[in-house]
Write a structure and sequence with these properties.
mainly alpha; two-stranded antiparallel ribbon; 14 helices
């Protein structure tokens, strides 16, 4: 018999990772905007994502809708506990989207204002996504089927640090994306920027990796007891190898490798978070089966979602295929 709760959990995780991969470098470009003051190069940075950025957030909608239908208890608790950071994240995404479009139509005198809005929206949305992840990792107290914690549970040092860490991670994604999509002076600038940002990201990953088990004995036991230690050891080893690989690829002036290895690095980081909380969907006590909706509801949703997923994947692949290759000055899509 098929475990529908597990199937939906996989769909939600897949949608989340697709969103992180695709909107991550998009948001990352806004995060690293302040490091480049050249107006023509800023236009070029925007043009690398202009044809595809609208479709990237499809995966965020897919993940949120799936959580609402397949795990209504988790959706209710998360939106209750983390309403403020989720709302701020949406404001950031909206503000960034408006700024993205309006800066192309603004006069030269007004364009810097929209640039600032683009930067602020990108950083706010990313930071709040990290705060939500950090808050979930910390755990949300639940009594019965209702959230039972404080209203400002997300204003926690660990959650705030996770927000800052995600800003750095998306910044590295944005820089390595531009290494892949541009050439010349802008590409060289992004190569120089990648090294310190990647180093900061590794420091953040190291701190989170120590902070988490020290604060949560159950997570420490999950990682550091035998035989789990041997099963999970490849994750930190591959993180270090990915870090070394990105530095080496940037040093060799590679075009595609830095971005692909950065994706692997971030995937490994979120895999570590998943290992820490499994099988809970609301740490520390609500499992995915306890939070699941009725099987008939999950089956009904699955019948509608399975035909849609290949369509979304198909048009996503096709859009990136059509606009593959380097983007050069003077090429625009508005």
């Amino acid at each position: 018999m098929i475990d529908l709760s597990l199937v939906w959990f996989v769909i939600i995780i897949f949608s989340t990772l697709m969103y992180i991969v695709m909107d991550g470098f998009d948001l990352g470009i806004g995060i690293i905007f302040p490091f480049n003051k050249d107006a023509s190069e800023r236009d070029l940075m925007i043009n690398t994502v202009a044809p595809v950025w609208d479709g990237n957030e499809t995966w965020l909608v897919m993940g949120g809708a799936s959580l609402y239908g397949a795990f209504p208890l988790a959706y209710a608790v998360i939106t209750d506990a983390l309403a403020a950071p989720l709302t701020l994240m949406l404001f950031g995404l909206i503000f960034r989207g408006v700024a993205f479009e309006f800066r192309f139509k603004a006069t030269p005198a007004h364009r810097p204002h929209w640039d600032k809005a683009f930067i602020a929206g990108s950083i706010l949305a990313t930071f709040m996504q990290g705060v939500v992840v950090g808050s979930l990792l910390n755990g949300l107290p639940v009594t019965g089927r209702e959230y039972a914690g404080p209203a400002l549970i997300w204003l926690d040092p660990f959650a705030l640090f996770c927000g800052a860490g995600l800003v750095i991670a998306y910044g590295v994604l944005g820089a390595t994306w531009l290494i892949m999509k541009t050439e010349g002076q802008l590409q060289q600038k992004m190569s120089r920027l990648t090294v310190p940002m990647l180093t900061a990201l590794m420091v953040a990953i190291g701190i989170i990796s120590l902070w988490t088990p020290l604060s949560h004995p159950a997570i420490a036991q999950r990682w550091f007891t035998l035989p789990n230690l041997f099963w999970f050891l490849p994750v930190p080893v591959l993180v270090l190898l990915s870090f070394w690989g990105v530095l080496r690829a940037v040093g060799k002036k590679a075009h595609y490798t830095p971005f692909l290895l950065t994706l692997l690095l971030i995937f490994l980081g979120f895999s570590g978070l998943g290992i820490s909380i499994w099988p809970n969907i609301i740490p520390p006590s609500i499992t995915l089966h306890q939070a699941a909706s009725a099987e008939i509801s999950q089956a009904f949703m699955l019948a509608g979602s399975l035909p849609v997923l290949p369509v979304i994947l198909g048009y996503t692949f096709w859009s990136y295929y059509v606009f593959r290759g380097k983007v050069r000055a003077g090429e625009g899509y508005h």
